[in-house]
Amino acid sequence: MHAAEIRARFLDFFASKGHTVVRSSPLIPGNDPTLLFTNAGMVQFKDVFTGRDARPYTRAVSVQRCVRAGGKHNDLENVGYTARHHTFFEMLGNFSFGDYFKREAIHYAWELLTDVYRLPPEKLWVTVYHEDDEAYAIWQQQIGVPATRIVRIGDHKGARYSSDNFWQMAETGPCGPCSEIFYDHGPHVPGGPPGSPDADGDRYIEIWNLVFMQYNRSADGALTPLPKPCVDTGMGLERIAAVLQHVQSSYDIDLFQALIRAATRATGMTAAPPRKPLEHFSVRLPLARARRQYGDRCGRSRSPSRSDGGDPAAIPNTQNGEATQGKPMKNALETALKVIADHIRACAFLITDGVIPSNEGRGYVLRRIIRRAIRHGYQLGCKTPFFHALVVDLAREMGSAYPELAAAQRRTTDILHQEEARFFETIASGMAMLEAELSSIAPRVHARSDMVSPLLSGELAFKLHDTYGFPLDLTADICRARGVGVHEAAFNAAMARQKERARSAGKFNPEQGKIEYRGGKTAFTGYESLRADASKIVALYAEGEAVERLYAGQRGVVVLDTTPFYAESGGQVGDQGMLSARDARFAVTGTFKIQANAAGHHGTLEYGELSVGDAVRAEVEQARRARTMRNHSATHLMHHALREVLGAHVQQKGSRVDADKTRFDFSHSAPLNRAQIQRVEALVNAEILRNAPTKARTMPYDEAIRSGAVALFGEKYGDSVRVLDIGFSRELCGGTHVARTGDIGLFRIVSESGVAAGIRRIEAVTGEAALRHVQMLETQLLAAAGALKTMPEALCARIEQLQQQLKTLEKERTQWQAAQAARQRDALAAQVVEIGGVQVLAAQVDNADARALRAAVDALKDQLKHAVVVLASVHDGKVNLIGGVTSPCNQTIHAGELVNFVAQRIGGKGGGRADLAQAGGTQPAQLSSALHTVKAWVENQLNLTERYSPAK
Ligand code: SER
């Protein structure tokens, strides 16, 4: 039965049972940040299960395209190594939203498998969640599956709901116990029944999962019951097709035939195009032909000793990661072709659904899958892009089931080609480096007897990642085939270091440096106008590489023949805005010089396509540009004002002007005082009020300098320069400026600080930002006055008055504390006893921490002269103990020994000097009796043993 028929029968069967046929949703889940890709049929119904969304039906059936790569369900690592794992697959599923539950779900599944697909019942096994007696009983009593073929599956390590038979889409979302149906491929295939130690083999294959959705898992891990119990089932089309087509591997089904054949062709493993129509083409044929071809190529033209990684003979059998004897070449080839055939499906569908290869998120998963496919092709000898050529075969194979795939064919091919071209530039060097390292590690593998796999250095893995574009999992995959692991912790550390370097490098734009533009100059029209209606695209770049076309979703750089966009320079930021064509829109997030006279518009193509040669309308975001211009013109006025207020030594040392503010660094040795700041503000604002028109002229440099224009020291100028007259300032400047000084509105300095020896920095704002700043200060002033119940004008006097009150209170408090301490000391002094001429005090004090205790001990030592003092306090169930002995008594009585003696009686220990020591204890209840022993201990020390003997 062909895959197309399996799909159709599935949909028909459930439609006949009252299910609404629902189309596959895209691979990017709508509005679901918890999920990388659609990984099951239930994803588009997630909100229906939880009750947040309602549909006009309560029963649905679908064939859903799914990707399981990255995220909670990730099969990427297994692809090519098992008979049943895929990154992309189709899931047949039926769903009940609070309609039927376990009984019908199980009956429907059984009826479809045995009556419609006509599978022999004795080949089917089932599992249930170990607590699910209800499902067990339905299988055994209603369906009649013998108990020997029903397996209860428990939880992992006893954690409830951690079982393989408890399904959840992601860390959060709908979930529930499930019951799975397995097909026994027969004793000739290795593997054991579900739940047995050999369950991972390929003999018993799970074909259908019936999930009894009952709970919603929230971010804190709590499970709450769904409003109504639901059903979500999923059957992998490729697996059921393998069963129904009597093949053991899902790579041998009809759907994969053409793809494996196409991969064989595209990698040059066979020159012959398929001669037979698909229906008559044996599933084994492409591989068999490729093997013949492959053997020839290796024998004829390749030296097995080559170590550039391009030699297929060098690839060992990668099954289970072990190099095995037998037919390594055959296995490596099979693996490579399977991986390529699998990956073209995932990649083409992801691109169709709007994912673009990139360095983060979904785009990075896509990039990793593409690079894996390329690496396998490379190891089969491909040295130029081949992978994109499979899109046409895929579209032929699956385009009728998924018309969107066929519609996007050209775009998908192009994007894959761009990505391939990029990786092929570096893969050879990267593989050579990795190969060299692996061959030095490999001999050690065999020399070792303890079987601990050796590790590739994390630094090397990072270098491969950073310089040659090898994602970590690609490197790990290549190493795995050699029984070598990767030192991931060191890789991550190197990655973190690089991120830190990039962060501290600040605003460096990584895309900027890479572009190699050799075209003509960009004509800049942005002094006069913010819009150009027909600019021509002269070059396009995606991730630094020249491309002919950009597609929706792609980030890139557009170069135009004419642009009103100002490219960042002279401290002024580049413009933002929009480039639009009839059916395309490119959002410009920044404009940078890619060469002295050429501007690159950086941004993202929001929709449509743009090709080199297209005409676009270029529109600068007006409000942002206007704010930037105000700040820039104000900077010129401020520069002049600073020279007037501080002196002609003031020179510009750096500036950054954007839409929010101007930041101006200049030479001056001392902080500006308030009066100077206000004077600068007044001068600038006076020029603004004068509202003089700005004049820009181009003239020879020498003439400009003679006319008094300020040039920046160390800056390179051409022979002919642009001279800007703005109010009282005259400077050489290429930036964009207001038409009249009055356009600036209002100028305010918001901060003044030092950045280096002799360099000060002023930050200032203009226009609405200046107004906002003034209003913010006023709001705070009013709030402060309100809090102190006075008017803003009286605020300072009120604060002074309060400070005075505070001072008085502080003084009174100190006096009161001193009196209190004296009272406490007197109370303690009353407890002093005299022993042999020494004043002894052992007492408990309330509310004192170790510092207060120590101060009290010191004070008592001063007061009592010949004294032994032990003070204790209890805080949070712990005892603090400080002991002090005056000199010369401390020659006979050691404070450290004393506190240690006491501490031992309260579950602690301590020690210290002869005059002062500290200890702690944990048994406050014993404190009182412990303190009582002090007297006797002192007596003992003083040798008054006739009244005290430790033996008594
Ligand atoms: N959601 C379940 C699975 O993916 C059943 O569809 O296995």
What does this structure look like?
The structure is a single chain. By secondary structure, the protein is α+β, with helices and mostly antiparallel strands. It contains 24 helices and 35 strands. Helix 12 (409-447) packs antiparallel against helix 13 (458-468). The protein binds serine.
Coarse morphology: flat
Distance between the termini: 102 Å
CATH architecture of the largest domain: 2-Layer Sandwich
CATH fold descriptor of the largest domain: BirA Bifunctional Protein, domain 2
CATH class group of the largest domain: Alpha Beta
Number of separate helices: 24
* CATH homology superfamily name of the largest domain: Bira Bifunctional Protein, Domain 2
User: What oligomeric assembly is this protein in?
Assistant: single chain
Q: Report the β-strand fraction as a percent range.
A: 15-25%
Ligands present: serine
- State the share of residues found in helices, binned by percent: 25-40%
Structural category is alpha+beta
Largest sheet, described in full? 9 strands, mixed
**Total number of distinct structural domains:** 7
Low-confidence stretches: 271-328, 506-513, 945-952
Mean pLDDT: 88
Q: What is the C-alpha radius of gyration, as a whole number of Å?
A: 40 Å
Total beta strand runs: 35
Protein name: Alanine--tRNA ligase
Catalytic activity: tRNA(Ala) + L-alanine + ATP = L-alanyl-tRNA(Ala) + AMP + diphosphate
Coiled coil: 792-819
GO biological process, one term: negative regulation of DNA-templated transcription
